[in-house]
Write a structure and sequence with these properties.
Pfam families: DUF7854. InterPro entries: DUF7854. It contains three helices and three strands, in the order H-H-E-E-H-E. With about 100 residues, it is α+β, with helices and mostly antiparallel strands. The longest helix has 19 residues. The two termini are about 20 Å apart.
């Protein structure tokens, strides 16, 4: 899915919500599905990983080529620098 298609799909989801054809949770699911499809196709052969563990890491989802790369991206997204943080949050990664 290219960027323009993703934006159009999000607009369609928002329009359905505005018109009362979809509730908020359904709209959230549609938009999340568009983003996930766009992200995985945008990054090529990468996998989608979800962090499971302590806050503020738990539940973060990243697209990365490997678990080590996903670990780095999760930490970066949470604003944690493992080189300077003496006690970074513990977490595992699962493929989504």
């Amino acid at each position: 899915m290219d960027r323009i298609s993703a934006l159009r799909n999000v607009e369609d989801a928002l329009r359905a919500f505005e018109n009362g054809e979809e509730d908020l949770s359904g709209t959230e699911r549609r938009v999340a599905a568009v983003l996930r499809t766009y992200a995985t196709e945008f990054d090529g052969e990468d996998d989608v990983f979800r962090a499971v563990g302590d806050p503020p890491i738990d539940g973060r989802v990243v697209v990365a080529p490997s678990k080590p790369a996903a670990r780095e991206r999760v930490l970066a997204a949470a604003g944690i620098d493992p080189a300077t943080d003496d006690d970074p949050p513990a977490f595992d990664l699962e493929r989504v």
